[in-house]
Design a protein that fits this description.
alpha/beta, Nucleotidyltransferase, domain 5, 3 domains, 11 helices, 41% helix, elongated
Length: 297
């Protein structure tokens, strides 16, 4: 039995309790007996009776809870979006080349004098449309059986290869965004890379997805990673372009791309890596050959 004022109950349950208590009193029960039966303080029941006498049953109903006021105004959100679309965080005096939740949180604090938690920044990303798909979630673009087989048989080898060289395994994708707030603003693409441990890096580019944009993103990812980057990609035109192949080759093993298998509309899109690992580097002991990598003779 409770002996409290009911504030621990949710609003709908508390509304029902108020109406029930007043109804019992109207039917002849003593307010203190009602309070004892319901496990409430007698002052709570007397207060409900006073509200009923003043405003009737409607005065006993739960009032809608006001939502928290937004931390940033719509004008500030547009300003923030324009700063991110502007490109490289280094233009905003940050040392990193790609945006993260932590960097955006610091930018908000500096530009608007508003302190947000990482969780709040994540919710704000959703409001701005900056919400990526989970890694390997775009299954509709790939043959489901081939993708499942790749995840089961090939992905573990890619993980091992990245670990052997002290690298990081990323899953990379891109999505087209509508300009924040609608309107006739330029088309924007978000390219992002994520790890299975929750790391998330991204950049925004105006216009269509191009090899130049993808190469720029890879260059910036290398800058922030400072270790070999093993990147799983979906194998779109920009990722398979000749310019991209040349750039990856010039990285001398510090950047490797792994294409997911069975991409719809791409001929010969089986699992492969670009470029092959540098010759003379042995495959990890006990592992299978990584797609696109030859075992040394």
């Amino acid at each position: 039995m409770r002996d409290d004022d009911g504030r621990k109950l949710d609003h709908k349950m508390l509304e029902s309790l108020r109406i029930t208590a007043v109804q019992h009193v109207r039917e002849g029960a003593h307010p203190e007996d009602v309070a004892k039966t319901l496990g409430l303080h007698r002052k709570t029941v007397y207060g409900w009776l006073a509200r009923y006498r003043k405003g009737g049953t409607e005065a006993l109903r739960a009032k809608p809870l006001p939502g928290r006021p937004p931390k940033l105004s719509e004008q500030q959100l547009r300003r923030l979006y324009s700063l991110i679309v502007d490109g490289d965080p280094r233009r905003q005096q940050f040392e990193v080349a790609l945006w993260t939740k932590q960097v955006v949180r610091a930018l908000i604090r500096r530009e608007f004098d508003v302190a947000l938690s990482i969780a709040s920044v994540g919710r704000m990303f959703s409001k701005l449309g900056l919400t990526p798909r989970p890694p390997l979630s775009r299954a509709g673009d790939h043959d489901p059986e081939a993708l499942a087989r790749w995840k089961r048989e090939e992905l573990p080898d890619v993980r091992v290869a990245a670990q052997v060289v002290g690298g990081t395994l990323y899953f990379c994708d891109d999505i087209a965004l509508c300009p924040h707030g609608g309107g006739d603003g330029p088309d924007v693409h978000m390219i992002w890379a994520a790890t299975t441990k929750g790391g998330f890096w991204f950049a925004l580019y105006e216009g269509a997805m191009t090899p130049a944009a993808f190469i720029d993103f890879c260059r910036r990812l290398q800058h922030d990673s400072r270790r070999p980057a093993y990147v799983v990609v979906h194998g779109g035109a920009a990722q398979r372009a000749t310019e991209t192949e040349r750039f990856v080759a010039s990285a001398e093993g510090q950047l490797r791309l792994f294409f997911l298998p069975g991409r719809a509309g791409v001929s010969g899109s089986g699992p492969s890596a670009t470029p092959p690992a540098p010759s003379g580097r042995p495959a990890p002991a006990g592992s299978r050959t990584i797609p696109g990598q030859r075992r040394p003779a």
